[in-house]
Amino acid sequence: MIVKRYVVETMIEAMQKIRTDLGSDAVILSTKETKVGGVFGLFGKKRLEVVAALESDKKETEPARPKAAAAPLPVPAAIPRSVGAGAYRKASNVANPQKPEAESVESSPLNGKNVAVSSFNQGLEDLRIKPEAQSSDNLSSGSVLAAVPSKTPMIQEEPDLTLQAEQQRQLERSIREFQQDGIPAREDRLYEELHQMRLIIDKLSRNHDESDPMPENLDKLLVQLREQHVDEALIQDWLERIRAKEGPAFSNSSAEEFRQEIRAFTENREGGGIGDDTRIVYIAGPTGVGKTTTIAKLAAEQMFKKKRKVGFITSDTYRISAIEQLRTYASILNVPLEVVQSPGDLQRAFQKLESCDLILMDTAGRNYRNEMLVSELQALIAPAEYSETYLVLSLTSKYKDMAEITDNFNQYKLDKVIFTKADETGSFGSIFSLLYRYPLKYSYITNGQNVPDDLLLPSGNLLVDVLLGEQTI
């Protein structure tokens, strides 16, 4: 007997490997969860360990026996075939009724796809309603892979209810992939098409509205704002302010008035840099936005321009590389660094850095679209009169994601926002949309990886020029 062990991510992958290596007559002996990799048993990845066997006197090309055929020799009780495999056979019989049961299922033609999917779904219902519990002690040399194609997923039932539930979820995912026929999502493309349609409709409506003609210079200004994806409600708010000054009809000077409205908007939301009386700055934000590099830039600015003594604290223990990166910056700048994991550690770190004029704290980058993870972070952030909390957001992110993250943070004391990766995008409308929707002040904008150079403290005029495409960052 040939016995092989496989460590895979899914049961589907195991089935494909078993069929390739051992053939369709192979029998699965055991399935269990295991962990691979990691350090001292920690941080290991979960995998499935599958053990399969094949009798050495069997040939892979031997045809599967019909169900009604009796075994010529006495053998142990045969293991019942997977209900998932039965669902595949049922779908195959409907789409290709002329083929015998032991044949491999072929890809059904387009005109029979819906019928096959219907039967496949019915097979899944059988799996949910009539689960068959079986023991690994009842294994035999009977085939569990017959009548299953090499690329078709199936589920091998095991006594472990957790594994059985996982296998059922895999089968449901396979159904969805089969029904969708492999067509990927087009969310970004659809969003862009809808945006272009809105621009066309707005232009047509303006062309047909003879009672309120739009001056050409103002029309071009509005087109630029919409191409930058500025919130339409904010654009209409600016237009209403101009109408309140000039009356219902726009004039050639309306474009300049519109610029003044944009400039006033940005000036009212300037947050400036780190305050001179600020002792602690908390830096928060999602993964991949450049928090650690931004902290190094802020430290260099405060040390070289403000002549302040700076200290580092990091709670980003989820990524070892993040600690090492900040440790490298601390060594270059000759700055003390403390690593914390709990509120108690944080208080001890503050005491050790008591001689510093300014403490910059790096927090863990997590999926902060999840409100629960945001609440966990608050245990390490203690806003006070002498502290500031900065939210770091990347300008390469979708505005919808930026707004969701800001919304989760906004229920806590959030002072200012730092926008990063300005050099990697040409769209800056999300800055204005975010400042319009939330009571935030913008502070810094980063436009590169160089420390300490690529850190800007922008004025309102700079943001207006960048938004209108008259200047680059």
From TrEMBL:
Record membrane topology: Peripheral membrane protein
Transmembrane domains' residue ranges: none
Compositional bias of kind Polar residues: 105-114
GO annotation, cellular component aspect: plasma membrane
Pfam family, one: SRP54
InterPro entries registered for this protein in UniProt: AAA+_ATPase, FlhF, FlhF__GTPase_dom, P-loop_NTPase, SRP54_GTPase_dom
GO biological process, one term: SRP-dependent cotranslational protein targeting to membrane
Chief place of localization: membrane
Entry similarity comment: Belongs to the GTP-binding SRP family.
Entry protein name: Flagellar biosynthesis protein FlhF
Organism: Saccharibacillus sacchari DSM 19268
